[in-house]
Design brief:
Number of domains: 2
Structural class: alpha+beta
CATH class of the largest domain: Mainly Beta
Number of helices: 3
CATH architecture of the largest domain: Roll
Strand order of the largest sheet: 1-2-3-4
Mean pLDDT: 89
Shape: elongated
Distance between the termini: 68 Å
Helix content: 25-40%
Largest sheet: 4 strands, antiparallel
């Protein structure tokens, strides 16, 4: 087949697939309804743990979860799925940073090295940071 015909056909086919995925909801990011929803989704992956508090980000696509055990829970939307992590002091690459309404959590895990969480205000960001600090203190 002539390349002058094949090139536009391939480009049109890719554009059509992208359009269909987008219009059928394939590009929609999940959101957490509330703190209870965040805790329930985290406990689905870690049923043996007990949580008592969750702080949601401004867009409700992530949450920091306070646990009774050492460590804290982290849940984030990734496409049409949620990724959950149990983070303890040994998993942190450095102390958690808070700048205004943003919290940055750097981890040693190369598959999930950093999470930047944007909260609705600085006080909510500090509450999330306190959860991470308390988790680190429990471990030591």
């Amino acid at each position: 087949m002539n390349l002058l015909v094949l090139g536009p056909m391939v480009a049109l086919g890719i554009a059509l697939v992208v359009f269909l995925v987008h219009t059928t909801g394939g590009s929609k990011t999940l959101v957490l309804r509330d703190a209870d929803d965040a805790r329930a989704r985290f406990l689905h992956d870690y049923p043996d743990l007990k949580s008592h508090m969750a702080v949601l980000t401004h867009d409700r696509d992530a949450a920091v979860i306070a646990l009774e055990a050492p460590g804290f829970g982290l849940i984030m939307a990734l496409g049409n799925r949620f990724v959950t992590r149990l983070v303890d002091a040994a998993a942190l690459a450095r102390p958690v940073r808070v700048e205004g309404a943003t919290v940055e959590i750097a981890m040693k895990d190369f598959t999930f090295p950093k999470a930047q969480l944007a909260f609705s205000d600085a006080e909510t960001a500090r509450a999330a940071a306190r959860i991470t600090e308390n988790a680190v203190e429990k471990a030591s």
